[in-house]
Amino acid sequence: MLAFNAKHRLCALSTHFIRQLGNQPPAESIVRDAEQPVELPFYTDEQRRLILNVINEKGVEQLLRYDITKSRANKLHNWKARNGPLRELSDILYVDGFGLKVVTKFYKSLLEPVPSASSGAKAAKASRIAPFITPVLDEQQRQLISSTVGVRIGVTSVSWARLELPQTKYSPCLLSHWQHHEINDKKLHLVELVRRCLYVSHQIPEADCYVLENPQMAQASNNPGSIDQQNVNIQKAQVTSMLSYALMARINAGESKMNVFYLRRFLTARLFNHLVGTERVSSEETILGMMRTYYNMEEYGEQDEPINLQNQVQFPSNLRSMYSKVERYQRELLGQAFLLNLAFVRLVLLQDQASIASVSRNSKKSNEQELK
Tell me, what is an example of a GO biological process annotation in this record (predicted)? Predict the structure, then answer.
């Protein structure tokens, strides 16, 4: 009996000891608690008051002017709504997503002077603009480009237009060359296709760079279409590749710069409002409207007040006459090559802010702000 009671008490004591041991924090946690607490950099009393005043008084949109993400700004705003304003600089460490590194960068930006609109600097973060061309154009090379050729490649034809950039902002670009060439057949043997592409490449005038529309990428599909349609797409890709190679070969040996660039698809149609849904509309009216401007007369004198004309184009009389005499479908293809080139000039070479805003994702928001 005594042995049984002793055994029972021993089991109870062991169970109690195990429960107490399970309630103890791990040894690693005990070591961490013994470490020094997280400490922010030293701030003077004046800096401390400034930081707390900005955080407690500014809203989410105003805080975004500093080095903080929108998600963290929202979390900080919600924390203040529940717990009240920050009393100490270290209180921000209780907010989810704010560690020592993040807080230090944020506080540093709060102590720096905020650029004002009167100084000409941007008060808000610059909007992100998707790249317009492939590959990327080096800034030094961009400044040296004075002429460019836009090449529009179809299945049975190639069209091109050459522009010379103005020397000053008070002069328009000059259309110096405009041509359309028919390949005719849709199903050509590769040897014959190479021969015709080489002939076309010799007809395309020299320039500092050449721009084509970015070709459609091949995609796997359960319904690829008819065999004829596949052959058409293949031939267009072949023509694009051959002409690209021929134009790239114009670079002098030893030079590492690129001279062939591909503009993003449908960018030209978006810039000149020629896109309805996913369908392009005719460019003829746009071209004719540009030809009717005063600087496209036989002679034009100086205006009372100089106008920035570098984004516009002067059409020589012989090229205007040629455009009016060709077939309508040829006018459309010439217009597409010309507008492709002009879009490249405005968006990439001249970096016209109005043109960039019209094709950027935030263009609608920017226009609303300008109207206000």
Answer: transcription elongation by mitochondrial RNA polymerase
Based on the domain organization, do 169 and 110 belong to the same domain?
no
pLDDT tens-place string over residues 158-182? 999 999 999 888 889 999 999 999 9
User: Can you give the CATH number for the domain in which 44 is found?
Assistant: 1.10.150.280
- 196, two tokens: 């015709």
Identify residue 167 by its one-letter amino acid code.
Q
pTM of the full structure: 0.61
Which DSSP helix (H) or strand (E) runs through 263? strand 260-263
Same domain, 100 and 70: yes
Cα 329 to chain center, whole Å? 32
On whether both 212 and 257 belong to a single domain, the answer is: yes
- Same domain for 185 and 319, yes or no, is yes
* Pair of tokens at residue 83: 């717990």
> Cα–Cα distances in Å, from 328 out to 158, 283, 335, 370?
15, 11, 10, 39
Residues 266 and 292 grouped into a single domain: yes
Backbone angles phi, psi at 360, to 5 degrees: -85, 160
**Distance (Å, rounded) from C-alpha 156 to C-alpha 258?**
27
Please state whether 191 falls in left (phi above 0), alpha (psi between -120 and 50) or beta.
Answer: alpha
Within this chain, do residues 102 and 195 fall inside the same structural domain, yes or no?
no
Q: Percent of the chain, pLDDT > 90? A: 37
Q: What is the extent of the structural domain holding 324?
A: 133-217+227-299+306-371
Distance of CA 133 to the CA centre of its chain: 9
User: CATH no. for residue 198?
Assistant: 3.30.420.10
- Residues belonging to the chain: 372
Which tokens is 281 given?
A: 């509309």
Q: Tell me: the pLDDT tens digits for 184-236?
A: 766 678 888 889 899 999 999 999 999 999 887 554 445 555 555 555 577 78
- Alpha helices (H) along 84-135: 100-111
